[in-house]
């Protein structure tokens, strides 16, 4: 499902965190996001997941295949997800709407490894609302959240809400958008079974699941 933001009351408190699950996200930046902004956005997403009890590692991967990649960039599986930051949306329905910020791909079994952010829309909203890196960080967390929660559903409020209006955008600016306590529990519960139940997908076979850039 698409995450959307609107241009111009829910109180969120991070749940108790009994343990830290771990996940690695390989980031491919096709949009040439300023490195300092991207690092800050990844740190913001890391903070949001940490509040939910999930430790995330963000690995910089190179869009051009001729460059030597870190080892994590060569693996796509239950504990190694892929985030692609695109200059703009690829599909026509998303491309025709400037409020669509990203999407995550899940199959009929609710399993997915790939998430996407549409940087032109994120940058436009961030500039209009003076959100800096915070909006990109929260979009990263939202789309990876879909993959880890194994659901394209959205919540009424919080980081997994579908529409980000004035109240949500204000909380983003304050660093106060989080997963709900129940979502945090689900994130932690989903990670361990995924490691044992889902086979490793190599980069070669994964290409058939997603249209190439």
Short structural summary:
The protein is α/β, with parallel strands linked by helices and 213 residues long. The protein is 36% helix and 21% strand.
What would you say this structure looks like, in words?
The two termini are 19 Å apart. The protein is built from 7 helices and 9 strands, in the order E-E-H-E-E-E-H-E-E-H-H-E-H-H-E-H. With 213 residues, it is α/β, with parallel strands linked by helices. The protein has helices spanning 35-51, 92-95, 119-129, 134-149, 166-173, 181-197, 203-206, and strands spanning 2-5, 21-29, 54-61, 75-76, 80-86, 100-105, 114-118, 163-164, 201-202. A hairpin with an 8-residue loop joins strand 6 and strand 7. Strands 3-2-5-7-6-1-8 form a 7-stranded mixed β-sheet. The chain has a two-stranded antiparallel ribbon with strand order 4-9.
Q: What is the oligomeric state here?
A: single chain
Total number of distinct structural domains: 1
Rg from Cα: 16 Å
Largest sheet: 7 strands, mixed
Helix content: 25-40%
**Silhouette:** globular
Assign the CATH architecture. 3-Layer(aba) Sandwich
Blueprint (SSEs and pairs):
Blueprint: E1 2-5, E2 21-29, H1 35-51, E3 54-61, E4 75-76, E5 80-86, H2 92-95, E6 100-105, E7 114-118, H3 119-129, H4 134-149, E8 163-164, H5 166-173, H6 181-197, E9 201-202, H7 203-206
Parallel strand pairs: 1-8, 2-3, 2-5, 5-7
Antiparallel strand pairs: 1-6, 4-9, 6-7
Helix pairs in contact: 1-4, 3-4
